[in-house]
Design brief:
The complex is a heterodimer of chains A (about 425) and B (about 80).
Chain A: E1 9-10, E2 15-18, E3 21-27, H1 28-40, H2 47-65, H3 72-85, E4 101-105, H4 109-118, H5 127-141, E5 148-154, E6 163-169, H6 200-208, E7 220-222, E8 225-231, H7 232-278, H8 281-286, H9 294-305, E9 312-319, E10 322-328, H10 331-340, H11 349-364, H12 375-382, E11 388-394, E12 403-409
Antiparallel strand pairs in A: 1-2, 2-3, 3-8, 4-6, 5-6, 7-8, 9-10, 10-12, 11-12
Chain B: H1 4-14, H2 19-26, H3 28-33, H4 40-45, H5 54-68, H6 75-78
Helix pairs in contact in B: 1-5, 2-5
């Protein structure tokens, strides 16, 4: 069994680091929407990026975690248990050898999550597991990552009875990225936050200690969705490597449309995950008794958010007019700087979309009435009329001391067309 | 002249919230090739008549159908703007 509770949550930076890799919580909505947004640019060969990004983080983490486990069966068992604890599904590495082997499973988060959200796919979709298994093969047997190959040959999302991954030896058939620099964290300042009756620290500590229920299929079915605890630098790598390819292919125009989709991914994440949290029995038990105003709901959900490994969010201002948050050490900025140095534009897309999503839930969606968070509800809220939009006003990846996001109600365009997305700071 | 705005409007109505952005990212290389700048915001403000190369309009229709998951209605590509 793999237990994340054995790893201390860093309440100074609001991070969970396991085997050297920062881990964050994301739902299947975010995971597959982000992946599909990348795959939509069919002129970019994204498969090697998607697989390579997973291989990179899995290899690094597992090499660290397995360092004191010499026994081969125990090494495999640790990997299987970790995969399951992450909510990724079930894998059996019993047949794996140093030469590779086949891994079959009837349960993976990405395949099941994709089919749940988008319906059947024409082609396999679980690039994450493909890369994870490549990294695992290399880590288990002490091989160079550049000497393993992995591909997915069958996928539940296409209607197949199982996922099948074929692992082997040879020059890597995925991108091997340059080594990341060590992470640099900024000090968290003692910003003045608006008064609230919400005990934010208590919420963050309670949520960070809350175990996530993994079911018999190795999935975390909670808050009306499938949740995962995955690698911050997986998300960072796929987003930023793709963004760099888009810059080469399509310049600024390409980057801006990609940014809008990445921000929308954050918005969808907030709507479904944070919305699911705010309508959950866990929220009712822990947070609801503290809430008197909509602003309290905002404080409460960001206290919860602070337990998810994304960074340290401080509420600077919140009302029906708009909100400003400062995030110290947002995982996107930390990862970007590790991988690519200083950014020349704002890249904290998740938290940008996330802030807009929270404002929309609380002030437009009346989340306190516990609406059903269906696709139809989403369309009704966001296809017509005004909605909150968010934009970065500073970004830690650019060298600022923190990432600051401002959300405001967007002016209604003529004909009541909703405007979504955010202007990215340059 | 082909009414491409109608296709975008149809996609927005029948597809997901970000249907237009998804179409744009799919046809981005053709936009670049033809030196055309199109964003979701400019499309909203777009007049119904906009001259686009046939290759690009075909790609937009194809992308819209992929994004929405059904064929663009026959009346949309057939719509001709009046020259009066």
């Amino acid at each position: 069994m793999f237990d994340f509770a054995e790893f201390d949550y860093d309440f100074v930076a609001n991070r969970l680091v396991v085997g050297g890799e920062p881990m964050v919580l994301h739902c299947h909505h975010y995971n597959v929407f982000l992946q599909r947004s990348i795959q939509d640019a069919e002129y970019i060969d994204s498969a090697p990026i998607l697989v390579g990004a997973a291989a990179e983080v899995a290899f690094a983490q597992l090499t660290d975690l397995l360092a004191r486990t010499a026994d081969l069966p125990a090494r495999k068992a640790t990997v299987e248990a970790l995969y399951r604890a992450c909510g990724l599904g079930l894998i059996d590495l019993g047949a794996l050898t140093e030469r590779g082997g086949d891994v079959r499973t009837r349960s993976t988060h990405y395949s099941i999550g994709w089919k749940e959200k988008f319906g059947r796919s024409g082609t396999p979709v679980d690039f994450f597991s493909t890369g994870f298994l490549a990294g695992a093969l290399a880590a288990i047997y002490g091989l160079p990552l550049a000497d393993v190959q992995a591909r997915q040959t069958a996928c539940l999302s296409t209607g197949a009875a199982e996922d099948m991954f074929v692992l082997g030896r040879g020059p890597a058939n995925f991108t091997i990225f340059a080594q990341r620099q060590s992470p640099v964290l900024n000090p968290v300042a003692d910003d003045a936050e608006p008064a609230t009756s919400v005990d934010r620290q208590a919420i963050t500590r309670a949520v960070a200690a809350m175990p996530l229920p993994v079911n018999a299929e190795g999935l975390i079915a909670i808050f009306g969705l499938y949740l995962t605890r995955l690698y911050a630098d997986y998300y960072n790598r796929i987003s930023f490597a793709f963004e760099r390819e888009m810059t080469e292919a399509a310049g600024r125009q390409g980057v801006e449309v990609a940014a809008d989709l990445f921000i929308e991914a954050g918005h969808i994440c907030a709507f479904n995950t944070l919305g699911g949290i705010m309508t959950s029995p866990e929220w009712d038990a822990l947070v609801l008794p503290m809430l008197k105003t909509r602003e309290d709901w905002f404080h409460g959900i960001f206290a919860w958010w602070n337990a998810c490994g994304y960074g340290f969010a401080k509420v600077i201002e919140v009302s029906a007019t708009g909100a400003t948050i400062r995030v110290y050490n947002d995982y996107e900025s930390i990862g970007y700087r590790r991988m690519y140095g200083a950014a020349d534009h704002g890249i904290s897309y998740l938290v940008t979309g996330g802030l807009a999503g929270v404002m929309n839930l609380i002030y437009l969606g009346d989340i306190h009435t516990k609406p059903e968070l269906t696709p139809e509800f989403y369309d009704r809220l966001f296809k017509r009329g005004r909605a909150y939009q968010a934009r970065m006003t500073t970004c830690q990846a650019m060298g600022d001391p923190y990432t600051e996001i401002r959300a405001e109600l967007a002016a209604a365009a003529e004909g009541e067309q909703r405007l979504e997305g955010a202007g990215v700071s340059a | 002249m082909f009414d491409v705005k109608g296709v975008f409007d149809w996609a927005k109505e029948n597809g997901e919230v970000k249907a237009v952005d998804r179409i744009l990212i799919k046809v981005m290389l053709l936009l670049i090739k033809n030196k055309i700048t199109l964003t979701a915001a400019t499309i909203e403000k777009m007049e119904t008549r906009m001259a686009l190369p046939e290759e690009l309009t075909r790609a937009i229709v194809r992308a819209a159908e992929e994004v929405v998951g059904k064929p663009v209605p026959d009346f949309l590509p057939a719509r001709e703007t009046s020259n009066v």
